[in-house]
Each structure stands twice: as structure tokens, then as C-alpha cells.
Write a structure and sequence with these properties.
With 455 residues, the chain is α+β, with helices and mostly antiparallel strands. It contains 15 helices and 9 strands.
């Protein structure tokens, strides 16, 4: 492609992104004006629920349980006149909000608050219970029934084994004890209880393997896998973070199957450009940034590390270690911006716990699919799923209580730069460890040049 064509393509993409941003600003204008007037704005809004509610951590034993819901304001009511608008918000409310379903339209009164940080969405503190305006589409209703049946069966398991299962399978952490949540934060394993690209890759890979084992053509197997992944996304909640995870997970799996770093990198770039064109605000979203960095780490670094390790360990073990190390090396600098500390045992914790993530994902998802059709079989599948979940909890708790499990790190740009340098040094150290001959020659060459300059 010529230089002029590249410039024209860049200008076109920039124009599309600016157009999308401008349209979003225009649609959000009725809210933005009231918000700019100062402080919290009391509004009566019509909202569309985007994702299943999530329980918030309580600050005290006497505090009422609060729930967080991702929603989109589609209209603001003023003097019985509704002004159309569109703005994504994070709503918090009482237990009545735990029953809302994605796809529903509700009306609520509340206080509109600014984002808690530069990259967050505006907050809507609900002052009243939701008033249901319309029921969700049938597919959202089916997904809600599946989630409810799965949670009921998970609660029937013993608390020490079943508490973490909903978080690992569908991202519902309402049953996870606070002590275990704190341990997982300390060891850098909280991503396991959020639907991530790894979950989607495992689901997609399992469906592809099953379809190919049934002698389906590659095209038909891809369609079946895509439909299966789409169904999984709707069940766990089709909010933007899950959709991003599904897309990045699918890209990661396709990249690994392609086996070519250049081709894999092209897939990642295509997906990132497409997402940024449709939703430019993702460029400032930490979840999106970490998803992209993790995928890049797998594509650029993970596959290389796996090839280095194949000479010493089995292929499956080399792939697991390479993927984990590559993703962590790329994500570590940005994680410092979120929390200025280093999880000292994050790598061994993720490696050991990662061995149990696959069985939990496979068995738990199978139990989720069968919980309304054949609840007896679903209950049987949840038994080994609970054992594996208990193993993950035990690993996180063990490493979290070791000395120096969380060490402080500088904040801001300096912390990011120093962690990026440390990640680069780690990669260099790994290269030297797996290439001792080349490393020795490089050191000898550098020594020779220093001596020559010194003479």
C-alpha cells in the first residue's frame, strides 16, 4: 500500500471515530448539561439494563446489600415529557435491583454523580425501586433462567466448595467470601472470577474440538463454535466488557491456531481498530487496554516462550507457562496505574491455579447448559467443579499469606515506566536463560568492544 493510501485510510478512520464520538455527545447532551450545573443531579430516567446485577462488597455487618448494574439511560423525564438521550452509566441501588434482567427497560429516580475516576462511567445512585416498563427479549429471559437455576444448584453445594464456582463460570461473585476475595486481589488472580478472554478461548476451543471430532467441515465447525460462544456470552451477560473478552478470546485462539506471529498480530490489530472505530471511548478504558495487552502478550511473547520451553517440558505445559508469562509481562505496567503494588507470587499462583481453570470452565459450563434440562446431571458435574474451585481458593489463600505477598511500587508515570523496564529485563533474562551460547557470545562481543574503546 502506498503512502498516500495509508494517509487516506488513517484520515478516514479518524473521521469515523470523530463522527461516532460527536453523535454520542449529542445524544448525551440532555444529561451532560444537567450534570455540568454542579454536584449531583436529581433525575428521573428511563434505562435499559445492559448486564446482570452484581453484588457490592458491604462495609459493615449492619449495612444493607447494595447492587451494581450496568445500564444505558435512553431518556430523561422532565414534567411528564421524555427527552431522548443515550448515556452509559453504572447504577447502584438496594436489593430490589438484584432482580432486573438485561434487556429490560425500567424507570428510576436517582442522583447522577460524576465518574469516580477519569476512565469510569457516570454513576446513578438510585433513590427508589425500579419500575418495569418492558420485559426483556426471550433470549435474555432464557439466559436469566439459566443463571438463576445455576446459582440455586451452586448454593446447594457445600459452602467451602461451591462458593467460588459461580464466579469462575459466570462471573457472579455474590457468594465469594470477603477473605477469599482479598486473597485473590493480593495474588493477582481476581481476573479468574471475571469472564475474560481465557474463558471464551477455552469454550471456543472445546466447541471447535467437539465439532471437528464429529467430522464437521471447518466452515460448519466455525459456525457452531461461533453460535456456542454467542450463547455463552448472553448467559454470562452481554455487557461491553464480556463482549470485548469474547472477541479478544476468539482472536487469541485463532492466532494460536494460525501459528504465524505476523498473521496473528494482524488479527489483533484488525479487532482493535474495529472496536475503537465503533466505540472510541474504549481507548481510555482500562479493561479494554488490559484485554489488548494480554492478547498481544500471548501473540508476541507467549508463543515464543512456549517454543523455548518445549525442549524441557511437555508441549501443553510449555503453552500454559508461555501464555501466563507473556500476558503478565505486557499487563504489569498498566496494572501499576490501577494499584501501585506488585503481587510477588502472582506468576506461580496463576500457573498452579491455571491448571484447575480449564476443568472448572468445561465442567461448570456443561452444568450451566444442563441445569434446567437435566438438573440431576448438572448437579453431578458440579461436584468435581466444586473440588477444582476449592483447589483454586486454597492456592490463592496459601500464596496470599506468604511473607511479602504484596509489595509497594511507585505510582503514576514513573511506576509505569519502571515496571515496563522491569518487564523488559525479565524477558531479556529469560532469553539469556534459554540461549546460553548466544548470550555468552553477546557478552564476549560487548566486552571486546569495551576493551577496544578503552585502548
Amino acid at each position: 500500500m502506498s503512502g498516500r493510501a495509508l494517509v487516506a485510510l488513517a484520515v478516514l478512520m479518524g473521521a469515523v471515530a470523530l463522527g461516532v464520538s460527536a453523535s454520542n455527545k449529542i445524544l448525551a447532551a440532555p444529561i451532560a448539561v444537567s450534570q455540568d450545573s454542579g454536584g449531583a443531579s436529581g433525575i428521573v430516567a428511563t434505562l435499559q439494563i445492559d448486564a446482570p446485577p452484581k453484588a457490592l462488597a458491604s462495609h459493615g455487618q449492619g449495612d444493607a446489600q447494595q447492587w451494581k448494574v450496568a445500564a444505558t439511560i435512553v431518556g430523561v423525564n422532565d414534567s411528564q415529557v421524555q427527552t431522548p438521550c443515550r448515556m452509559t452509566v453504572v447504577l447502584t441501588g438496594s436489593g430490589a435491583w438484584s432482580d432486573v434482567v438485561p434487556g429490560q427497560k425500567v424507570r428510576a429516580a436517582g442522583a447522577l454523580l460524576p465518574p469516580q475516576n477519569l476512565f469510569g462511567a457516570p454513576r446513578l445512585q438510585a433513590r427508589a425501586n425500579p419500575r418495569i416498563l418492558s420485559e426483556p427479549p426471550w433470549y435474555h429471559a432464557v439466559a436469566q433462567n439459566l443463571r438463576a437455576a445455576f446459582l440455586t444448584q451452586a448454593k446447594a453445594r457445600s459452602p467451602d466448595r461451591g462458593a467460588l464456582v459461580p464466579g469462575l463460570v459466570i462471573g457472579n461473585t455474590s457468594m465469594t467470601p470477603e477473605e477469599l476475595t482479598a486473597a485473590m486481589k493480593t495474588t493477582g488472580t481476581t481476573h479468574l472470577t471475571a469472564v475474560s478472554g481465557a474463558n471464551c478461548s477455552l469454550i471456543l476451543g472445546a466447541i471447535l474440538l467437539g465439532a471437528r471430532s464429529l467430522k464437521l467441515r471447518r466452515c460448519m465447525a466455525s459456525v457452531v463454535a461461533g453460535l456456542g460462544l454467542l450463547g455463552f456470552v448472553f448467559v454470562v451477560g452481554p455487557d461491553p466488557s464480556v463482549l470485548r473478552a469474547a472477541l479478544m478470546g476468539a482472536i487469541g485462539l485463532v492466532s494460536l491456531l494460525a501459528g504465524r506471529r505476523g498473521q496473528s498480530l494482524g488479527f489483533v490489530c484488525l479487532a482493535v481498530v474495529g472496536l475503537l472505530l465503533t466505540t472510541p471511548t474504549l481507548a481510555a478504558d482500562f479493561g479494554f487496554i488490559l484485554s489488548v495487552l494480554a492478547t498481544l502478550g500471548i501473540v508476541l511473547c507467549g508463543s515464543v516462550l512456549a517454543k523455548w520451553l518445549e525442549r524441557y517440558v511437555p508441549t501443553w505445559c510449555a503453552a500454559a507457562i508461555g501464555i501466563t508469562v507473556g500476558a503478565q509481562l505486557f499487563c504489569a505496567p498498566v496494572l501499576i496505574l490501577l494499584k501501585p503494588q506488585v503481587s510477588t507470587y502472582s506468576l506461580p499462583t496463576n500457573l498452579v491455579a491455571g491448571l484447575l481453570v480449564a476443568p472448572v470452565t468445561f465442567l461448570g459450563t456443561a452444568a450451566l447448559a444442563l441445569c434446567t434440562l437435566v438438573p440431576e446431571i448438572s448437579g453431578i458435574l458440579l461436584v468435581p467443579t466444586g473440588w477444582c474451585a476449592q483447589g483454586i481458593a486454597a492456592v490463592a489463600t496459601f500464596f496470599a499469606h506468604l511473607p511479602g505477598a504484596a509489595l509497594p511500587w511507585p505510582e503514576g508515570g514513573f511506576g509505569l515506566a519502571t515496571m515496563a523496564a522491569l518487564s523488559a529485563l525479565w524477558y531479556l533474562a529469560l532469553w539469556c536463560a534459554f540461549h546460553p551460547v548466544q548470550c555468552g557470545k553477546a557478552v564476549e562481543l560487548v566486552h571486546r568492544k569495551i576493551v577496544e574503546v578503552g585502548l
